[in-house]
Specification:
This protein is α+β, with helices and mostly antiparallel strands. 20% of the residues lie in helices and 32% in strands.
Length: 346
């Protein structure tokens, strides 16, 4: 909703059946000209442009979200609700590269991709500009492709440039690493040279714990500690190898070697049946991706090893997958979920 400093739109009347609405404003720094007002339901965020938090000079936009927007006609004088802040979604979990928020419907959550980066169990951290946008788009693309070949994933749909709606699952606290080429800790542990193609793929398990530095574990640990059953482990291994077969061929087709990758899984009950879903994300944050001709690294190793060119590497992966427009990250399409409601016509 747009208005001027001298005649901002009035506080709207709540729409029947749509919940409690509040106004927030983003005033111009100069104190003159137009500003943007966002109307959002206090309990359910839908379609729009940003989470607004209080700042020293009034509300400020922090990140994309979904809310209603429309044009309100009218005039009002004086201060314009500078201390009124819209209600935010409840944050469920704050991770190294993603934040998790409650979803708009039961059984769903929202996954927000950040530019933050952390490696070596949090020993080295930083920020990669635009990483969250690229990873969101790549993960959407790969999860969708996996679903098309019958591999169950938690992905439902992308909401905006940094967020996607996913199925709420009970995360199994194990990372599954599938290795096709010697690299990383595999080379270090066994004194092998990086780049050697393995005769067969290796599946490894790691317990997700930054405090313990994600120790490698065996199936016996997983079952003894109650993290997963034997049947679940068998299904996880089978799904991991299916994902590997599909992704390996997909990346070969665009001139990239899938060296290794990490998966996480979640369980959910559907119609009295326990199902296992691929969860988390699939992106250059979780995969080792090398150029097939030059072995140039196109993944998070560029940050781990201080190689530079991190943003360009991530964008190159997206470009080869056919999901990066010529204009770059800023031109990535923002999908529209449902119709934009024009409040003035209600």
């Amino acid at each position: 909703v747009r208005g001027s400093v001298n005649s901002p739109p009035p506080q709207p009347t709540p729409i029947k059946g749509e919940g409690d609405y509040r106004w927030v404003t983003t005033p111009p720094r100069s104190g003159r000209g137009n500003f943007i007002v966002t109307l959002t339901p206090a309990l359910s965020l839908r379609e729009g442009e940003g989470v607004v938090e209080s700042g020293p000079q009034g509300p400020i936009v922090r990140r994309p979200l979904y809310c209603y927007r429309g044009t309100i006609r009218g005039a009002a004088r004086g201060p314009f609700f500078r201390n009124q802040i819209m209600a935010r979604r409840r944050q469920i979990f704050e991770g190294k590269g993603k934040d998790i928020f409650e979803g708009p419907e039961p059984g769903t959550i929202v996954q927000h991709f950040k530019d933050d980066v952390s490696v070596h169990s949090g020993a080295k951290t930083g920020m990669i500009t635009g990483k969250g946008v690229i990873n969101n788009r790549i993960s959407e693309h790969l999860m969708t492709r996996l679903s098309e070949v019958g591999i169950p994933t938690h992905f439902i749909r992308r909401l905006n440039m940094r967020e996607q709606l996913i199925r709420e699952v009970e995360i199994i606290p194990i990372s599954v690493v599938v290795r096709n080429v010697v690299a990383g800790s595999l080379a270090t542990r066994f004194g092998l040279e990086e780049g050697r193609r393995l005769d067969r793929s290796i599946v490894e398990f790691y317990y997700n714990s930054d405090d313990l530095k994600d120790p490698m574990v065996l199936e016996e640990h997983i079952t003894a500690f109650g993290w997963a059953s034997h049947q679940e482990i068998d299904e996880i291994i089978a799904l991991s190898l299916r994902v590997n077969d599909f992704l390996y061929g997909l990346f070969v087709g665009i001139g990239i070697r899938l060296v290794d990758f990490k998966l996480e899984f979640g369980r959910v009950w559907e119609h009295d049946q326990l199902r296992i879903f691929v969860a988390d994300e699939i992106s250059p944050d979780t995969c080792r991706l090398w150029d097939a001709d030059t072995d140039e690294k196109l993944d998070l190793d560029r940050f781990r090893e201080d190689l530079g060119g991190i943003e360009e590497a991530y964008q190159e992966v997206a470009r080869r997958l056919g999901i990066l427009p010529e204009g770059g990250v800023t031109d990535l399409e923002i999908p529209t979920i449902g119709a934009v409601r024009n409040i003035s016509e209600s």
